[in-house]
Design goal:
Length: about 425
């Protein structure tokens, strides 16, 4: 069976550095930090009092008031990103479009944690009154519901679900969409992820794991991948969606093609619930798997958007894996962690970072890893690698690879490249 080719024909994003793709990309290229004091709840008693929040988000641009009340914030963000993506793609204007073959796979690692916190908290505060839960409690909370909303809004009857693999969730969305389309099971799929865990239980839970930075005096510099002084990740929120489409279907309707999706890899560390393998065994396996799937040599990759969360264990292990997989070519590539700007969007991270890879391929520019300063070198990091510190770099980006790793040892990797006939 000959596999079909898959391209990206639409983009949408709501992130801590912009409420649309253009603003997000401009701020990424300019090295803008999305971090600041938490505004969504009183965090004054928490070890971490800052996050990368989405700013000035108005759900009424995408949902009427009644609809918005039925949606957790993560779903509102997902709908916004999906609406942008669908409009940008022009897909629904296609005459005779077969919506039976258009799907939605928009994922979350946690889902409606804000809804869960509010409903369960309210129950225990008023327990003496008996159980009084919002009838939308369950459908607002579950982590697949964003896909359901997007499908229903547009009558998209193709594959419809969410993948849950912690911080690898939306990269698994992308890989699954890619596989379904190239196997002929769909013509197009809205693929992506959303997350909105900036709440007491989100911050408190990650604080209990000692996973978050506590640099409260300087939030904008707290996410500092590859720096010796890094002390944990910065929690982010947001959403991104990409329209994955079968090439001939896209060409037939005259769609704009941003990039081609050529490979996806999946692996497990099989090591620890929350820590990556110190030698990067799962990371090496997933990158090699993606390269094999794409029928590409390691030397053909120009840019790696790393998982790069700014944690003491995770950053060095990923660098070790990259050096082993790419060998001497590792010194010819650009490597960067855009989480230094967006923070860690958990289940939405992979979608946002795949979007950055697509835009890097399209525009021949690599966004930076910000917040590195001379004298803050970690002896476990090889600084002869081009880690794209502090300033974006122009270069030809024919192919880019995005890594995401999740609690539970889940690893996922996707490769995009310039589209050529």
């Amino acid at each position: 069976m000959e596999l079909k080719r898959v391209v990206v024909t639409g983009l949408g994003a709501v992130t801590p550095i912009g409420n649309d793709v253009e603003t997000t990309w401009t701020n990424a290229i300019n090295g803008v930090s999305g971090a600041g004091p938490i505004t969504q709840f009183d965090a004054s008693k928490f070890k971490t009092q800052f996050a990368c929040e989405v700013k000035d988000f108005d759900p009424s641009k995408y949902l009427d008031r009644k609809e918005a009340r039925k949606c957790d914030r993560y779903t509102q963000l997902a709908i916004a990103a999906a609406e942008q993506c669908i409009e940008n793609s022009g897909l629904l204007a296609t005459e005779g479009l077969n919506k039976d073959k258009v799907g939605v796979i928009v994922s979350a690692g946690i889902g409606g944690i804000k809804t869960f916190e509010a409903e369960v908290g309210d129950y225990y505060v008023h327990e003496e009154l008996g159980p009084k839960f919002n009838p939308f409690f369950i459908p607002k909370m579950i982590s697949d519901i964003a896909s359901g909303h997007i499908s229903i809004r547009h009558g998209l009857r193709g594959p419809n679900f969410g993948t849950v693999s912690a911080c690898a969730s939306s990269t698994h969305s992308a890989i699954t969409a890619f596989d379904l389309i190239r196997l002929g099971k769909a013509n197009a799929i809205v693929a992506g992820g959303a997350e909105a865990a900036v709440c007491a239980s989100g911050i408190g839970g990650f604080n209990a794991l000692t996973a978050l930075s506590t640099r409260n005096d300087s939030p904008e510099t707290a996410s500092r991948p590859f720096s010796a002084s890094r002390d944990g990740f910065v929690l982010g929120e947001g959403a991104a969606c990409l329209m994955f489409e079968e090439l001939e279907h896209a060409l037939a309707r005259g769609a704009k093609i941003y990039a081609e999706v050529v490979g996806g890899g999946m692996s497990a560390d099989a090591y620890h619930l929350t820590a990556s393998h110190p030698e990067g065994l799962g990371a090496k396996l997933v990158m090699r798997s993606a390269l094999e799937d794409a029928s590409m040599k390691a030397s053909e990759i120009d840019y790696v958007n790393v998982h790069g969360t700014s944690t003491p264990v995770g950053d060095p292990s990923e660098i070790k894996a990259i050096k082993e997989v790419f060998g001497e070519h590792a010194y010819n590539m650009n490597i960067s962690s855009t989480k230094s700007m967006t923070g860690h969007l958990l289940g939405a991270a992979g979608a946002v970072e795949t979007l950055f890879c697509v835009l890097s391929v399209q525009n021949d520019i690599v966004p930076p890893t910000i917040n590195f300063t001379e004298g803050d070198e970690d002896p476990e990091i090889d600084y002869n690698l081009n880690l794209t510190f502090n300033k974006a770099q122009k270069r030809v980006v024919n192919a880019a690879l995005s890594n995401t790793f999740g609690f539970g040892g889940h690893n996922a990797c996707v490769i995009v490249k310039k589209y050529t006939k």
